[in-house]
């Protein structure tokens, strides 16, 4: 009970103390502007003797930038980095309105500004305003052309430069790579450059996949999204299609097709046979190999080799020339017969249903 009571009393004391010297908790500005830092001490209930403004750039750096004493007048210490740019709003100022303005605000003016009253007999009382300086960052994103491989490499980069405060960078993608730890670099003018990258062990199938980088910053009304597509280079992947395992002596117009993809786009397609000799009955038409009439010379292994600037890929297929069409053809005929019988049954069923 007594604990609760003392907690309540503490709250009341804190509340009343916090209320005494009135300032704005935060003032936001861009470089080059003029900012006004307001201060008031309503109903002090004690004697006010002097008011000072103190600039705290860091926890250890504390300098007086403006002082007013009703008898001794105004003083702006020349040692301050704000010297010449800071002044009381009213001339002469008063203990009732010791607000100041800072002209040509710089990035390095960011920090805590303390309005401190000296009172009699109870000492100093203060209010603290944080001056926040904003700088709109310049954002860029680029995808990095990479070669397919097993080790993770950077596939996309995103950079938000010269912003204040530091921008937030996030990624969105269906890829299962990793986002690197963002690197924040502080520039001499107090702005911050943030770099983030996306890492992945790139596979050929990742080429062209979507990846988005999103930059959010206090100066931007909505986050900026950069849609990108991955660029993964890889040697051609090759596949021969068109062989149905049923080439027979005397068959006309059999053909094989060499399918290939690669990045960069493959430049050359080369057909070969394992023996090195291309049968006379075979015609090569780019990625097609046409057999005008199947004979025993076609009973061989065909190889298709496709190149791009990264290298080549190949596939091979062994053709087995059969004696005649009939062995397989008869099975086909049986299947046809069964199929047409089934269609017939279905037709009868439909008629009955009607
Ligand atoms: C990337 O952003 C675009 C446009 O904002 C959106 O249509 C797409 O779905 C996003 N893709 C991913 C992977 O988040
Ligand atoms: C991503 O991070 C996880 C866990 O930190 C790690 O196991 C994995 O190897 C990383 N993957 C890549 C592509 O860097
Ligand atoms: C950036 O991220 C921090 C921490 O996650 C968050 O507090 C802040 O509001 C974010 N800023 C913006 C502009 O989204
Ligand atoms: C065709 O090649 C196979 C081996 O792939 C061989 O067993 C067969 O005897 C050959 N047939 C003819 C007609 O040359």
TrEMBL record:
A Pfam family annotated for this UniProt entry: C2-set_2
Segment forming the signal sequence: 1-18
GO annotation, biological process: cell adhesion
Gene Ontology CC: adherens junction; plasma membrane
Keywords, ordered alphabetically: Cell adhesion, Cell junction, Cell membrane, Disulfide bond, Glycoprotein, Immunoglobulin domain, Membrane, Repeat, Signal, Transmembrane, Transmembrane helix
Domain of life: Eukaryota
InterPro entries referenced in this protein's UniProt entry, alphabetically: CD80_C2-set, Ig-like_dom, Ig-like_dom_sf, Ig-like_fold, Ig_sub, Ig_sub2, Ig_V-set, Nectin/PVR
Compartments, as annotated in UniProt: Cell junction, Adherens junction; Cell membrane
Domain named Ig-like: residues: 19-129, 137-225, 236-320
Assembly mode: Cis- and trans-homodimer. Can form trans-heterodimers.
Chain's role: Cell adhesion molecule that promotes cell-cell contacts and plays important roles in the development of the nervous system. Acts by forming homophilic or heterophilic trans-dimers.
Family in the record: Belongs to the nectin family.
Designated name of the protein: Nectin cell adhesion molecule 3
Species in which this protein is naturally found: Carassius auratus (Goldfish)
Gene responsible for this protein: LOC113099573
């Amino acid at each position: 009970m007594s604990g609760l009571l003392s907690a309540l009393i503490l709250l009341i004391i804190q509340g009343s103390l916090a209320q005494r010297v009135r300032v704005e908790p935060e003032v936001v500005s861009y470089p080059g502007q003029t900012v006004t830092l307001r201060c008031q001490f309503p109903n002090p209930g004690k004697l006010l003797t002097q008011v000072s403004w103190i600039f705290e750039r860091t926890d250890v750096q504390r300098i007086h930038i403006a002082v007013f004493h009703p008898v001794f007048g105004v003083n702006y210490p020349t040692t301050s980095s704000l010297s010449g740019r800071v002044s009381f709003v009213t001339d002469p100022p008063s203990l009732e309105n010791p607000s100041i303005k800072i002209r040509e605000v710089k990035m390095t003016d960011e920090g805590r500004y303390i309005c401190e009253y000296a009172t009699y007999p109870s000492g100093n009382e203060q209010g603290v305003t944080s001056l926040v300086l904003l700088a709109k960052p310049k954002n860029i994103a680029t995808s990095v052309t990479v070669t397919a491989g097993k080790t993770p490499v950077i596939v996309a980069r995103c950079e938000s430069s010269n912003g204040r405060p530091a921008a937030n960078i996030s990624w969105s993608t269906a890829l299962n790579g990793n986002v690197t730890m963002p690197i924040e670099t502080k520039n001499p003018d107090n702005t911050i450059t943030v770099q983030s990258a996306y890492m992945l062990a790139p596979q050929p199938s990742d080429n062209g996949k979507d990846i988005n980088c999103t930059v959010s910053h206090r100066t931007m009304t909505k986050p900026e999204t950069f849609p990108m597509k991955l660029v993964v280079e890889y040697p051609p992947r090759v596949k021969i299609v068109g062989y149905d395992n049923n080439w027979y002596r005397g068959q006309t117009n059999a053909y094989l097709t060499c399918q290939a993809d690669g990045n960069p786009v493959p430049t050359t397609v080369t057909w070969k046979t394992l023996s090195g000799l291309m049968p006379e009955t075979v015609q090569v038409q780019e990625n097609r190999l046409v057999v005008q009439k199947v004979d025993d010379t076609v009973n061989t292994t065909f190889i298709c080799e496709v190149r791009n600037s990264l290298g080549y890929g190949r596939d091979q297929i062994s053709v087995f020339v059969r004696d005649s069409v009939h062995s397989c053809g008869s099975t086909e005929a049986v299947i046809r017969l069964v199929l047409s019988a089934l269609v017939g049954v279905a037709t009868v069923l439909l008629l009955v249903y009607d």
